[in-house]
Amino acid sequence: MTAIIDPDDPWSGTAAGPRRILVAALAAFADRGYHGASTRDIAAAAGMSPAAVYAHHRTKADLLFAISAAGHRHVLAVCERAPAAETTPIARVRSLVHDYAAWHARHHLLARVVQYELRSLLPEHRAVVVELRSRTEELFREEVRAGVDAGVFHTTDADETTLAILSLGIDVSRWYTPGGTRTPVGIGRTHAELALTLLGTDHPASPPS
Amino acid sequence: MTAIIDPDDPWSGTAAGPRRILVAALAAFADRGYHGASTRDIAAAAGMSPAAVYAHHRTKADLLFAISAAGHRHVLAVCERAPAAETTPIARVRSLVHDYAAWHARHHLLARVVQYELRSLLPEHRAVVVELRSRTEELFREEVRAGVDAGVFHTTDADETTLAILSLGIDVSRWYTPGGTRTPVGIGRTHAELALTLLGTDHPASPPS
Predict the structure, then answer these.
(1) How many domains, chain B?
(2) How many contacts, defined by CB atoms under 8 Å, are there between A and B?
């Protein structure tokens, strides 16, 4: 979980065969939903037999968990790294919000499964994922708290504001379409500005460094 | 579409039998996704034969369209009515955002189908629904524009801010759980305050009238 991550590749370190299964399953879940995608379709899309898929993931539920956990770990790692190079609360929040929103655009199919298939996970799988989610949320809470404590954020309700910032980022995966007028980086910049406005700071309207 | 609507009942005016089908289909689509729900399951949940369901809706696609269109018309009607009793830009936006966010909590299953099954609609159905969506969005744009023109909103990007306000409301249907600590009215109030903060107005922090 603290491994070096590739911000562009949620499957880094995964061998070619298993990766092909994950990518095919992700596409199927994002397109038809977990309950609408069959293991047989996934195997066909991966160019494998169902037996080859079952050799890696005993059930469709295991496959969903593998994808959801990898996605949750990836966005957590991206968020852990985002503010590291910054020192002021405004720059740190800007970088964190930027990378979180951009992740939901850049990896919008994975983000959809991460964000909209929570209820489809088995309870024991959901427990693992919920723990990863709360660590990501806590990163945002800490940065907001630091800014409030430093007197640079003037929000009257830090918790609600933090949830709203996360909510805006998550919703990107619903509407984002690659190749449209809005790019992941552009969305990241917009969200960073929206977050600073919500936090009540008179920030200079410059892009993240 | 300009008919009198019941804000609590998206199916008002629908007879008991057809209503039972719509409610059963909505529950199935919200729970398992459009592609994961079968017409047979829906008929069983409605206490009917598949033939009885087909007598009302020839295909599952027709059923999705009936639900999506009814939901889109309902939220549009709620939004058309929301600001009508208010005269100032701040009070009008507060009322509009309040009712939009509260709708996504109160009717969270319907909202999920409305917001997350757009891609599952047939193209000719999607066209109808997209037109209803753009009318709802236009209501928000008009109110924001009126406040900017009146000099009470100080947002530097009215379009992005409007999309963010809509986005926050939509995302309620993802996380809202009935019986939790957050109520539709409480969520409505919070969203109204968040929207006014995003719009850059020094509003008095009072609940909507």
Answers:
(1) 1
(2) 67
- Neighbouring-strand partners of residue B9: B6
Give B170's contacts in chain A (Cβ within 8 Å). Answer: 171, 174
Alpha helices in B82-157 (DSSP H): 89-106, 108-116, 123-149
Q: How far apart are CA A65 and CA A50, in angstroms?
A: 18
Mean pLDDT over each residue of chain A, to the nearest integer = 93
Tell me what pLDDT residue A3 has.
56
Q: Does a structural domain hold residue A82?
A: yes
Q: Is the pLDDT of residue B70 over 60?
A: yes
- For residue B115, which residues of chain A lie inside 8 Å, CB to CB? 174
Look at residue B170 and tell me if it is in a domain: yes
∠ CA B46-A112-A144, nearest 5°, is 120
Torsion over CA: B58, B63, B68, B73 (sign): positive
Residue A5's pLDDT band, with cuts at 50, 70 and 90, is confident
Average pLDDT, integer, range B141-152:
96
Q: Which residues of A touch B34 (CB under 8 A)?
A: 33, 36
Query: Which of B161, B194, B205 is opposite residue A164, by nearest beta carbon?
Result: B194
The residue segments making up the domain with residue B65 are 60-198
Q: What is the CATH number for B75?
A: 1.10.357.10
Taking an 8 Å cut-off on Cβ atoms, the answer to whether B170 and A168 are in contact is no
Instruction: With respect to residue A163, please indicate whether it lies within any of the assigned structural domains.
Output: yes
- Residue B172 covered by a domain: yes
Angle value at C-alpha B122, between B121 and B128, nearest 5 degrees: 80
Band (B178; pLDDT cuts 50, 70, 90): very high
